[in-house]
Amino acid sequence: MNSVQIARMVVGLSWIYHGIFPKLIHVAPLELAMTASIGFSDELSYLITKVAGVSEVIFGLLFITLYKSKSIIYLNIIGLALLLMFVIIQMPNLLIEAFNPVTTNIPIIALSFILLGGINEQSKNS
Predict the structure, then answer these.
(1) What global pTM score does this model have?
(2) In the chain, N or C: fewer CB atoms in 10 Å?
(3) What is the pLDDT of residues 85-117, one digit of tens each?
(4) How would you label 71-88 residue by residue, b for 16+ Cβ within 10 Å and e otherwise?
(5) For residue 49, what are the domain limits?
(6) Which residues are within 8 A (CB) of 110 and not within 5 positions of it... i.e. 6 or more apart?
(7) Number of structural domains, the chain?
(8) Alpha helices (H) in the chain, listed in sequence order
């Protein structure tokens, strides 16, 4: 498996994992707290978290399928950067926790840039 395929799978599966486990199978209290930090009720926070989980799984599947599309890669980068900014603004205390958005989002963004470079290289060679 080459670096493009590894980056493709890691990025896509990260979205799928973060959609399924902390949002759909088991709604993590931290996920609810982040949504509630905007001011939503507990019930609405739960619903938004579930919808976000489904959306993340769909996006992960689309990413794996459409990984050669620069648009989806840029959408991924922008989305992860915005999610990181959200945490910085709404819940900055999370930035010092283990497995925080800095240690998850930034590496996935970096893999996205590697994927862009790999796709550009592949298109030059074909």
Answers:
(1) 0.94
(2) C
(3) 999 999 999 999 998 999 999 999 999 999 999
(4) ebbeebbebbeeebeebe
(5) 3-125
(6) none
(7) 1
(8) 3-19, 29-36, 42-65, 70-90, 101-125
